[in-house]
TrEMBL record, chain A:
It comes from the Bacteria. PROSITE patterns: FAD_PCMH. Pfam families: FAD-oxidase_C, FAD_binding_4. GO terms for molecular function: FAD binding; oxidoreductase activity. This is FAD-binding protein.
Automatic annotation (TrEMBL), chain B:
This is FAD-binding protein. One of its GO terms (molecular function) is FAD binding. Residues 1-179 form the FAD-binding PCMH-type domain. Coiled coil: none annotated. Pfam families: FAD_binding_4. The keyword Cytoplasm does not apply. The keyword Flavoprotein applies. Keywords: FAD, Flavoprotein.
Length: 477, 402
């Protein structure tokens, strides 16, 4: 296995005191909420970024905010690193621990505390899954908008940590746009409430700063999120194009015409083949690029919007247009897209990149991506949110071949640099984690980065919260 | 007034002031002068010399402009492409009694959002990237120009709504959206505040995409649309989009609202005027400096706050954001303690004193007091961006010394 990404060296003093620390932690959480046996720690060694793993010092799975606060207060007093964790679905290594760290898992905090339809809010504990919120309010005609592909498993706490998005964010925004408040445990165990059921902040927008901070500013134990009334109907349509360029310019023209579909998803030929083989969604196999465009509203509204979109697609020589005739068919179209990562995992190991680019650069970046991967002798499948320029090249490789793995990692880094050079950024929704940490200097100047790190220090002076992540290991303070 | 024409000039000015620890009053076009606590600074630094749209590709729905660019220039460029700022920024001139030119940087520095905020997000939700000079004179960039970006800490959100106390914005990049093709407004007449709040909540739970929900009690009704609204209090619900779609949704919404009271409908032109008047708080643009509060609470609780206050103080109020934004004008005394106690006892929120005479402004903290840990954290953050405390000292706090 390659180890191109360094971790901070574990603190010898912390390692040496392990038995003592475990004994102390045992006092702070109820029986069974401290994981200390070697075998039981294995599942916490890594997250969705499986190329790296570290065994943590211990794992605590608190049930209450008070327990989280007690653990934080303790770890702060002794300078023990803490790595917060939701369901462990991070794809950038955001929840990978280190040997001297206590993993603070929020997965046991799964209660929906309050649903308030008059104010259209839900208050939930951090370990509630993304989909559980929509499930809890769906029969009453509401939903929670951000929908990461891992929504069945991933937790709202993790979503806040990563400011997660998803396919429908083109219209509804990402987590930060749908978050009203959090209960946050600061590094020293102080509990603060940021926001609430009201809009906007009474001072600096600390809520906005915490969202997407990758567990570096505090531990979110509860969240109040915005609920939305479900649209009357939703209809995805498949469009097949002869080239990625044609699909890309179709997207630009749809948006330029003033139409904002609720989602525009893009797949290239390899992705189409992989997804079709798995989901049997009826995707056309004779096209180079596929768009799934979803519109919402009443039947009449959807008809009108789709008519305009189809007309625009025709000007780009669209080869296949498939409007679905039933809910089953619509579900199947989305099944293919949502299972893209899983389906790819069946045919090869892969790393999933997550750069964003301005829409005008999409076609060019796709072309150069293919050239980069080709140069390394690897294969790539592209599936992504075209409406907001969030690319997900899946680089296929063999995890058991160290050379192959190193090549995949190097190709991935080149692609991310390409995104930045095209005016985009290193990550649109997966986070920096450990994966992109050392590329931060490609997107930010030393001054930009130092300013971010200084603000981070205002929350956590000793850098004990998720310390090996997000920021380059040197130049901290 | 210092009006640098380039980022480098701005940076030099700020570094020079930092070196001698001399406070600077930061402003854009000055149309929001009077916001916050009084600032005591020897010099004023304005972004009004940093102008011009630097990048705009309508198909990407993103615009970049220098901070001092007039909002009118931005809106004209967007309108030419059928686009606009979905968060409906408020023009504060009428209510604040100011003149001058609102700037795009000033707009984001105060996170100014209008009626659509409760569905479309605030100004800060649309701000994608910034360039700013920090309190030591360093030029910093944050964010980017793409819709989705989770690279590092979101300093963009932090600076939005920081009233020039964390940095001097030099350039902003923000998301723009197609302007709705048409607008219609459903009016429900005769509802008391509490019933109006229930009606608005009911409308928001329907799949008709209401994009404005306000309640205008009888006391303010005459100040809208040249006094042509029907008699009594009026609750207004806005629908926007393609003409055919708005018509269908309006019928559906009307049918659902008839149970609450008599319903009428406004067309596109009148709707546009009405919502601009709501946005700019027309009833209290009264050329006085009577205390004006802007209160944000859970939508279902706002009317309870107003009802409680009416028993003890001279207060006039109307509601936007489904009842969650309360514009409140006091007869004489700001009644800050009663007001803030009321907000806390009704589940929380915040009150900002937007306008008052100098005497009241000196005596009353403009922003909602924060819990001690949050206040300390905010001060530490300010110390990381403006270590010498030279930007708008005291504006957001009650003059914390360092």
């Amino acid at each position: 296995m390659t180890e191109a990404i360094a971790f901070l060296p574990p603190r010898a003093d912390v390692l040496a005191r392990r038995a003592e620390i475990l004994a102390d932690l045992r006092e702070l959480v109820p029986p069974g909420r401290l994981v200390e046996e070697n075998n039981a720690l294995v599942p916490f060694e890594t997250d969705g970024f499986i190329a790296y793993r570290r065994r943590p010092l211990a794992v605590v799975l608190p049930e209450t905010t008070a327990q989280v606060a007690a653990v934080m207060k303790y770890c702060h007093r002794y300078g023990i690193p803490v790595v917060p964790r939701g369901a462990g679905t991070s794809l950038s290594g955001g929840a990978i621990p280190q040997e001297d760290a206590v993993v603070l898992g929020l997965s046991a905090m799964t209660r929906i505390l309050d649903v308030d339809y008059a104010n259209r809010t839900a208050t939930v504990q951090a370990g509630v899954t993304n989909l559980a919120i929509s499930d809890a309010v769906g029969s009453d005609g509401f939903f929670y908008a951000p929908d990461p592909s891992s929504q069945l498993a991933c937790t709202i706490g993790g979503n806040i940590g990563m400011n997660s998005g998803g396919a429908h964010c083109l219209k509804y925004g990402v987590t930060t746009n749908n978050l009203l408040g959090v209960k946050l445990v600061l590094v020293d165990g102080t509990v603060v409430d940021l926001g609430g059921q009201h809009l906007d902040s009474e001072g600096y927008d600390l809520l906005g700063l915490v969202c997407g901070s990758e567990g570096q500013l505090g531990i979110v134990t509860e969240a109040t999120v915005r609920l939305l009334a479900k649209p009357e109907g939703a209809r995805p349509v498949l469009f097949g194009f002869e080239s990625a360029e044609a699909a890309g310019s179709c997207v630009a023209d749809v948006i330029g015409a003033g139409i904002i579909p609720v989602a525009i998803e893009f797949m290239d030929k390899p992705a189409i083949q992989i997804c079709e083989a798995f989901a049997k969604a009826g995707y056309p196999l004779d096209v180079e690029a596929l768009l799934i465009v979803e519109v919402e509203g009443s039947e009449a509204e959807m008809d009108a919007m789709l008519a305009s979109i189809v007309a625009i697609a025709k000007t780009h020589g669209v080869k296949t247009v498939r409007e679905c005739q039933s809910a089953t068919e619509a579900a199947l179209i989305w099944k293919g897209r949502k299972s893209a990562f899983g389906a790819t995992g069946r045919i090869a190991d892969y790393i999933c990149m997550d750069g964003t680019v301005p829409l005008s650069q999409l076609a060019d970046v796709l072309k150069k991506t293919a050239e980069i991967v080709d140069r390394y002798g690897l294969r790539v499948a592209n599936v992504f949110h075209a409406g907001d320029g969030n690319m997900h090249p899946l680089i296929l490789y063999n995890i058991n071949d160290p050379q192959d793995a190193a090549k995949a990692e190097a190709a991935g880094m080149e692609i991310l640099k390409l995104c930045v050079d095209a005016g985009g950024c290193l990550t649109g929704e997966h986070g920096v984690g450990i994966e992109k940490r050392d590329l931060m200097r490609h997107q930010f100047s030393d001054i930009d980065l130092a300013q971010q790190m200084a603000v981070r220090s205002a929350f956590d002076e000793g850098w004990i919260l998720n310390p090996s992540k997000v920021f380059p290991l040197e130049g901290r303070g | 007034m210092l009006t640098p024409a380039t980022e480098t000039e701005a940076s030099d000015i700020i570094r020079a002031h930092a070196e001698i620890r001399t406070p600077i009053h930061i402003r854009g076009g000055g149309t929001r002068a009077g916001f916050g606590n009084l600032v005591n600074a020897a010099a004023t630094l304005s972004s009004s010399g940093l102008t011009g749209i630097t990048a705009y590709n309508p198909a990407e729905m993103v615009m970049t402009a220098r901070a001092g660019t007039p909002v009118a220039e931005i809106e004209a460029a967007l309108a030419a492409n059928g686009q606009g700022m979905a968060f409906e920024p408020m023009d504060h001139r009428a209510v604040m009694g100011t003149t001058g030119t609102p700037t795009i940087g000033g707009l984001f520095a105060v996170n100014s959002s209008g009626p659509r905020r409760f569905t479309a997000g605030a100004a800060r939700d649309h701000l994608l990237g910034i360039r700013f000079v920090n309190g030591t004179g360093e030029l910093v960039k944050a964010g980017g120009r793409v819709m989705k970006n989770v690279t590092g800490l979101d300093l963009v959100k932090l600076l939005a709504g920081s009233y020039g106390t964390l940095g001097f914005l030099t350039e902003v990049t923000f998301k723009v959206l197609p302007t709705p093709k048409t607008t219609a407004t459903i009016l429900i007449s005769g509802l008391e505040d509490e019933t109006a709040v229930r009606a608005m909540a009911a409308a928001m739970s329907m799949s008709v995409e209401v994009s404005g929900a306000a309640h205008l009690p009888e006391s303010v009704r005459g100040r809208f649309l040249g006094s042509t609204l029907p008699e009594g209090p009026v609750t207004v619900l806005r629908l926007e989009g393609l003409a055919a779609s708005v018509a269908v949704r309006a019928d559906k919404l009307e049918a659902a609202m008839t149970g609450f009271g008599p319903v009428t409908r406004l067309g596109a032109d009148e709707s546009e005027v009405l919502w601009r008047e709501i946005r700019d708080v027309a009833p209290y643009a009264d050329s006085t400096d009577r205390p004006l509060w802007r209160v944000s609470m859970a939508p279902s609780r706002g009317h309870e706050l107003v009802a409680g206050l009416r028993l003890r103080a001279g207060v006039d109020a109307f509601y936007d954001w489904q009842g969650g934004l309360i514009w409140m004008r006091m007869e004489a005394d700001p009644e800050a303690d009663i007001l803030r106690h009321g907000i806390r006892s009704l589940g929380g929120g915040h009150a900002t004193l937007l306008r008052a005479n100098p005497e009241i402004r000196t005596a009353t903290p403009a922003f909602e007091p924060q819990s001690r840990p949050v206040a300390l954290l905010s001060e530490r953050i300010r110390g990381k961006l403006d270590p010498h405390g030279i930007f708008n000292p005291g504006l957001m706090t009650s003059g914390v010394s360092r």
